[in-house]
UniProtKB/TrEMBL annotation:
GO molecular function: 4-hydroxy-tetrahydrodipicolinate reductase
UniProt-listed InterPro entries: DapB_C, DapB_N, DapB_N_CS, DHDPR_bac, NAD(P)-bd_dom_sf
Family statement: Belongs to the DapB family.
Binding site for NAD(+): G8, C9, N10, G11, K12, M13, D34, C85, T86, T87, S109, A110, N111, M112
Protein name per UniProt: 4-hydroxy-tetrahydrodipicolinate reductase
């Protein structure tokens, strides 16, 4: 049985994962952590991770960027593997994550779904052909009106896949409103839309002369992220220190 600490247990994703794990005999939530205590769970909940003294095999984190440093310190000190799903991390936090990965196993992924992880692979092939042929790359992402970070972690990860295939030649443009100039050839435009209950949409547009190719992923439910996170937790429990991602978990 894999023992999980659910960090952000009372949030939208924390509750999705609580329901998924209730149905899975291989995993158990032994403790939850959340700053908001207004939900009753079947497992004990504390308001900050430093107060959690229950032994566990892995931490799943879906919380808030401001909370991630505490999670990394906790997991590094106790050598507990961590599945890091929170988005909007700063460069300093990404560096902190690399340091923590010297002490424990860290799997970070901005998107736990099969579809997006396959898309990142497909984009590398597409970019090698289309980017090299001079197609412009633009990304549009859409999410619900409760999301705090923009652009989405997934949009950045998709851009990174394209950029990696183009040997890191691209810069990212998040806002053209103040520029009075044409688009640069080597930029990737990234635009964010927020509204209603949209679970998550990502479109990657390769626009060339007289032809356009679009890749689109639509999430219809948060369960796709939750299932991926639970599979990642099972995979990561017991693994040695180091950096992991969803391509280690999913056969692509
Ligand atoms: N990787 C993925 O596949 C994926 C999928 C969905 C969401 N996310 C990301 O996960 C994060 C959470 O998303 P959500 O929709 O569940 O958000 P949410 O706001 O519904 O839930 C976050 C929870 O974390 C709690 N929290 C905040 N700060 C805390 C702290 N310091 N200590 C303890 N608890 C704290 C909040 O009280 C809240 O209950 C976001 O960054 C989102 O972008 C990632
Ligand atoms: O609902 C969210 O918030 C999501 N965040 C992730 C991101 O920023 O990419 C993944 C999709 C859902």
């Amino acid at each position: 049985m894999v023992r999980v600490i659910m960090h952000g247990c009372n949030g939208k994703m924390g509750q999705v994962i609580t329901r998924i794990i209730e149905e899975d005999p291989e995993v158990e939530i032994v403790a939850g952590v959340d700053a908001y205590m207004g939900i009753t769970n079947t497992y004990p909940v504390v308001e900050s991770i430093e107060k959690c003294d229950i032994p566990a095999d892995v931490v799943i984190d879906f919380s808030n960027a401001a909370a991630v440093d505490g999670v990394l310190d906790y997991c590094a000190e106790r050598r507990i593997p961590v599945v890091l799903c929170t988005t909007g991390l700063s460069e300093t936090q990404l560096q902190h994550m690399e340091e923590a990965a010297k002490e424990t196993a860290v799997l970070k992924s901005a998107n736990m779904s099969l579809g997006i992880n396959l898309l990142m692979k497909l984009l590398k092939d597409a970019a090698k052909v289309l980017g090299t042929a001079g197609f412009d790359v633009e990304i549009v992402e859409k999410h619900h009106n409760q999301k705090v970070d923009a652009p989405s972690g997934t949009a950045l990860a998709l851009a990174d896949s394209v950029n990696e295939a183009l040997e890191e030649a691209c810069t990212y443009n998040f806002d053209r409103s103040k520029d009075r100039k044409k688009r640069e050839k080597n930029e990737i435009g990234i635009a964010a839309v927020r509204g209603g209950t949209i679970v998550g949409e990502h479109e990657v547009i390769f626009a060339g002369t007289d032809e356009v190719i679009e890749f689109k992923h639509t999430a219809y439910s948060k369960a796709i992220f939750g299932k991926g996170a639970v599979e990642a937790a099972k995979f990561l429990a017991g693994k040695p220190a180091g950096r992991y991602d969803m391509s280690d978990v999913i056969q692509l």
